[in-house]
Amino acid sequence: MRSNAYSMRNEAREERKRQELATGLLSDRFPGVAGIVVTMNYGRGSRSAVLRTLNFYPGSHAFFRISCLSEGCDDGGLDLTNSIQRMIRGRETLAKGELRCGNNDPAIVHPDVDYKVAITYS
Ligand SMILES: [Zn+2]
Q: Model's pTM, two decimal places?
C-alpha cells in the first residue's frame, strides 16, 4: 500500500499548502511587523539535533504551523500561531519556549523542539 500512503501524504501536503495560502499576508494581518525570525532546535539534547531557521517577511503568509519534519507526520505540526499573536499584541521582540507536535500518533516519533522567536517592528 505504498502508493496509497504516498498519495495520502501528498494530500496532507496539498491541504497544508491550501491552508497556508488561505492565511492572509503578514502585512495585512499584522501591519507594523517588519519581520519574524523563528529559530528551532529539533531533538533537544540529542546529537542529531537539527537547527532550522524560518524567516517571515511582510509579504509572507502569516502561517505559523511548522512541520515537525518527522517521517509520516503530515497533518501535525508545531503551532506557533498563538505565541506569535500574543507577542505581537504585546509588542514583544523575543520569546523562547518548547514545542510539541500537534499530532499525537504514538507510531510516530515527534521531536521535542526548542524555539526562539524574534520579531522586529517597523
Ligand atoms: Zn509530528
A: 0.84
